[in-house]
């Protein structure tokens, strides 16, 4: 067994993580074989020097990968996993980034195997991801250490104690960039409504979110304290926050959204 990796699916998430691993030189391109039916996406990984095939049937008979990364849609798991049964119930670790898909579902196809569930997010593409991890008891310390080394190239990593917490992480940080991008859209539209052209409106919105996120990370103050520092008594921020915080409107809306995402993750796992 070498540290060979098979990456199944080189779409948004699979490719983002692969780029991080290669860029940080934790993996050499020759250690990775990608299975991806879309030709343009195979070309993209081949440009990095990785081998790429269009289906599992084209994988060499003698491959004994340390890890198979499953970066395919949860709805496709039951169709695709049988192609990887031959690597199951052995030393190969399955690492799934799919929302919802449980370890039991994966082992239902592979037999009892080391399985790690990772919930990344798209900022992983620039090394600023947030990743949740849960591993079953069959994963060796050696493989877990290697996987942690890979994952930190994508961003911050948190290990959870219970598998269902991955569904909750999915709803917060997995889907979270979607909420933040929507807030950028909303702030851009609002900037246009008060008189700015599209380009300026977008810059005002993006830089405000970026600067605020950086300050929240770097400051020793809590977000509550940072919010208070912006809010002059009877000033402009107070006028806006009176709208967003009336009856805890924003918190209730975000909690409803997160609960819907968590429930959908649970549903996808059935
Ligand atoms: N996009 C996101 O923000 C996040 C996605 N995820 C998870 O990552 C997984 C992939 O999602 P995305 O990358 O967004 O989707 P995507 O559609 O960009 O990527 C999936 C890839 O799988 C490929 N594929 C289809 N059939 C295949 C097969 N038989 N063998 C190998 N590859 C095959 C597709 O051609 C596609 O490139 C999903 O399970 C999702 O839940 C997790 C966290 C965040
Ligand atoms: O929307 C989804 O289902 C995936 C999982 C987390 C982010 N994107």
From TrEMBL:
Pathway: Amino-acid biosynthesis; L-proline biosynthesis; L-proline from L-glutamate 5-semialdehyde: step 1/1. The keyword Transmembrane helix does not apply. One of its GO terms (molecular function) is pyrroline-5-carboxylate reductase activity. Its EC number is 1.5.1.2. It is found in: Cytoplasm. It catalyses: L-proline + NAD(+) = (S)-1-pyrroline-5-carboxylate + NADH + 2 H(+); L-proline + NADP(+) = (S)-1-pyrroline-5-carboxylate + NADPH + 2 H(+). GO terms for cellular component: cytoplasm. NADP(+) binds at residues 71-74. GO terms for biological process: L-proline biosynthetic process. SUPFAM superfamilies: 6-phosphogluconate dehydrogenase C-terminal domain-like (SSF48179), NAD(P)-binding Rossmann-fold domains (SSF51735). Residues 163-268 form the Pyrroline-5-carboxylate reductase dimerisation domain. Keywords: Amino-acid biosynthesis, Cytoplasm, NADP, Oxidoreductase, Proline biosynthesis. Residues 5-100 form the Pyrroline-5-carboxylate reductase catalytic N-terminal domain. The keyword Cytoplasm applies. Catalyzes the reduction of 1-pyrroline-5-carboxylate (PCA) to L-proline. Belongs to the pyrroline-5-carboxylate reductase family. This is Pyrroline-5-carboxylate reductase. It comes from Limoniibacter endophyticus. The lineage of its organism: Bacteria, Pseudomonadati, Pseudomonadota, Alphaproteobacteria, Hyphomicrobiales.
